[in-house]
Amino acid sequence: VSALSSAAGRQDPSIALARWTTHAEPSALQELLASASHPDVTSFALGLPAEELFPRDAYAAAVQEVLREDPRALQYGPPSSALREHVVELMRLRGVECRAEQVLLTAGAQQGVSLLSRLLLSPGASIITEEHVYPGFQQAVQPFEPVYRTVPTDRQSGLDVTAVEHVLRRERPAFIYASPEGHNPLSVSMARETRARLTALAAAYQVPIIEDDVYGFLGYGEAASPPMLALDPDFVLYVGSFSKILAPALRVGWLVVPPRLLRLLSVLKESTDIDTSTLSQRAVAAYLSTGSLPAHLTRLRHAYRDRRDTMLAAVARHFGTRASWRRPSHGVFVWLDFPDGLDTGAILPRALERERVAFLPSEIFSVPGGPRQRNGMRLNFSHCAPARIDDGIARLARLLDTPA
Amino acid sequence: VSALSSAAGRQDPSIALARWTTHAEPSALQELLASASHPDVTSFALGLPAEELFPRDAYAAAVQEVLREDPRALQYGPPSSALREHVVELMRLRGVECRAEQVLLTAGAQQGVSLLSRLLLSPGASIITEEHVYPGFQQAVQPFEPVYRTVPTDRQSGLDVTAVEHVLRRERPAFIYASPEGHNPLSVSMARETRARLTALAAAYQVPIIEDDVYGFLGYGEAASPPMLALDPDFVLYVGSFSKILAPALRVGWLVVPPRLLRLLSVLKESTDIDTSTLSQRAVAAYLSTGSLPAHLTRLRHAYRDRRDTMLAAVARHFGTRASWRRPSHGVFVWLDFPDGLDTGAILPRALERERVAFLPSEIFSVPGGPRQRNGMRLNFSHCAPARIDDGIARLARLLDTPA
Q1: Chain A residues in contact with B270 (beta carbon < 8 A)
Q2: Less crowded by CB within 10 Å, the N or C end of chain A?
Q3: Which among B26, B200, B204 has the least Cβ separation from residue A267?
Q4: Beta A253-256 vs A103-106: how paired, if at all?
Q5: Chain B contact for A264, CB < 8 A?
Q6: pLDDT for B140-168, tens place per residue?
Q7: What interface predicted TM-score (ipTM) does this complex get?
Q8: What is the rounded CA–CA span in Å between residue B237 and residue B257?
């Protein structure tokens, strides 16, 4: 066979990849996970929850109970009705009335966003996002090569709805991506009025909103607004997760969507990974059935609020007037804006090498074709040991004082 | 705002979906899961493993050990090095030498195939598959709307390599999908010579093979050939899973690929669901470290071989010369070919309603644009209680004797 004999040049075996891979890069988060996880680095970089606060014993007991009682807990299986009902109850805590038929169980919020992207995005479609977007979102949509239409974010009230309307007057994007509570990375929560205006626009222009609410349950006492889902169950597709309120390794999250979308989303889910672990689903349901989640959430909020306040005090002490920031009502981040001219991305390598401190620079959150902020910094307060926060912030500030 | 006031017609809120959804349907497997799971139905329909054979106590012990010893077992985390090394050992049992740097941990084989599809498929690309393909594969590639080039399957030696070469002479498809051991649904294992010819073609035409080997460890004593990966690590992308050899609810599987593809696949994996459950990874590694997998596999193979033989005896007894079949050396299915004119899809509703027996008709495995066999039947022997197999087959056979 001539083709076979012409294959002598095996030195450079070459597999042709999908087109989107030509501009794919490993995420900055993934790359940093390695260097920022050394024990001598004080890391404010990632958005990890605090592992010492996981309800480890209670979850271990739940797993044992489920494994002891039911051999089918390790089998493939349909989504757990009990867990879907628990999600309905949880949503009620957020001020949302929904039904189990609207709940799709996922392997976490990232999968939720990924499934919704596949449901809504034809290749080359446009989407509306803020100028700062969680890189995981960008990765989820990347294979569809969407056109980004970005809108600014007000540091106090959130996403700029007027800018959204300007886009909607010209075209019909596949969706609007918004994170109204503890926005990642800006840590803004959207004003109640902003939510109302955005959902009204979504309905008027028949463009769905993907509402990423993974930090919605991590509120620190300020009066909270209900998610946009409460305002419009037809055009708001809600993304929730147990990763931040119980533990990431459960790999369980949920969507709340109009019932008519559940069938297609179930097909998509099945095509992606068959099902969410039956064992995880049942163990989470068993844990929730003990009724200990509310007390756990209270502990979590107290601990994170303390860390937030420790970080804000340190930022005030060490940065003073050299940066601006706000106190976040939700989530796990503090966002710093520095004066023009300061490039946080250029500082990061020195921060890691000289001061052994890690953070994420603003440029990481820019989207293709959107504006690229260079003078912002995302600091996580949930994962760092409280005793190390002040010292870490002091070292970051010292870095800004010293020449490169 | 005029757009807002024109939104009076809220009676039919309409969200525009991605283009591929216009021809998406829930999988037949998913639909049947409901009606075939009634306790009074003898189901040969799905490919479920036997839950009574799961190493439930040993896995429970492994989970407890991991949760007791390490709070980070519930955290996000990089892929487990220990588990990747265990996979290298497992692959050695299949006759493959590989390195941990080639191993990507997944949430199961379905995710493995899904990730490889995203890596390799640009929208509208062509792919080579057999005429009978597992529906889960079709779901995984559907969003990319590939063009199927199908090749026949010899019931004895597997995929028709000459037909593959005819396609490759004309065009360069994104990949060839093949399942050389216990093919789903035909239950054929590819002859050693067929594997050698196919891998040589893949290299010659620089077209990768996705080798789906989920049943590779379920062999029943006949001399087994190594997977194609052993023949060409450059052009064979291997898909493995713990779902069939330990339990599906672990949601852990793996890919073995050229190291240069691991970076991109890791990005894709992260974009899909961040990571495979750290707890599952560590618990599976802890279980494997006890060294009890080989004995478990031996038990599993004995039990499934008995069920296979019970089913083959029942098929011979009740179908006699009215169907043709072969004894599968691997996997969990027996495939029946009936004479032309018999439509197994038309029989299924009666089988369920009148005889309370479930199977999958051949048409479910046809791909878009490919030929559509009507007179085939897939029977699963792994999940049915052995004592019910003969009666179930007898009832199926009786159905063929009676008019509709």
Answers
A1: 27, 29-30, 110, 136, 139
A2: C
A3: B26
A4: antiparallel
A5: yes
A6: 998 888 999 999 999 999 999 999 999 99
A7: 0.93
A8: 5
